[in-house]
Amino acid sequence: MMRAQILFALLLALLVRAAILPASAQQVPLQDKPFAEHKIVLQLSDGDARKQALVLSVANNLLKAYDPDKIAIEVVAFGPGVDLLLSGSERRKQVESLIAQGVRFDICLNTVDTIERETGKRPEFIQSATPVQVGVGQILFLAENGYTVVRP
């Protein structure tokens, strides 16, 4: 009887581990900015053009206010916010300029998958955007690693 309980406990532990590992393995590694004194994650979950422009403006202003090597900026787009990172976005050049300056833009693949299911076509997004499986999960991961979450 004791042997069966131990075997059951081991199997349960393996199942839990198998469920947890894929979720943690899907996180994108932190930016390689060893001298960053400030770490900011900008949440973009709104499809409104003014909100998207505001996020880009905040990122740009932070780069001007701080030495780009001293600040890590990550924009996480999910839900309607992914519109900013689609290939046909009006603000594509601004996004690519910020990426060239060290800002990372994450796009939620769960949202991309939902768009594909609803429209029958997978949307194309800016190649320099970083795909993450779960946008909110990426925000949580960053917050747990010292990033301040800002939702402009």
Secondary-structure map:
Blueprint: H1 2-25, E1 38-44, H2 49-65, E2 71-77, H3 92-100, E3 104-108, H4 109-119, E4 130-132, H5 135-144, E5 148-150
Textual characterization of the structure:
The chain has 152 residues and is of the alpha/beta class. The protein has one domain: DsrEFH-like (Hypothetical Protein Ychn, Chain: A), CATH 3.40.1260. The protein is 47% helix and 16% strand. The chain has five helices and five strands, in the order αβαβαβαβαβ. Strands 4-3-2-1-5 form a five-stranded parallel beta sheet, sandwiched between helices. Strand 3, helix 4 and strand 4 form a beta-alpha-beta unit. The longest helix has 24 residues. About 13% of the residues have low confidence. Keywords: Signal. InterPro entries: DsrEFH-like. This is Intracellular sulfur oxidation protein, DsrE/DsrF family.
C-alpha termini separation? 59 Å
Please tell me what the overall shape is. globular
The main sheet comes to: 5 strands, parallel
Looking at CATH, the homologous superfamily is: DsrEFH-like
CATH class label? Alpha Beta
Number of helices: 5
Report the sheet-strand fraction: 15-25%
- Biggest sheet strand order reads 4-3-2-1-5
E-strand count: 5
- Secondary structure: helix percent: 40-55%
Radius of gyration: 19 Å
- Low-confidence segments, ≥5 residues, pLDDT <50? 6-25
- Based on the coordinates given, report the CATH architecture: 3-Layer(aba) Sandwich
Kindly name the structural category: alpha/beta
For this structure, the CATH topology is: Hypothetical Protein Ychn, Chain: A
Question: Kindly state the mean pLDDT as a whole number?
Answer: 87
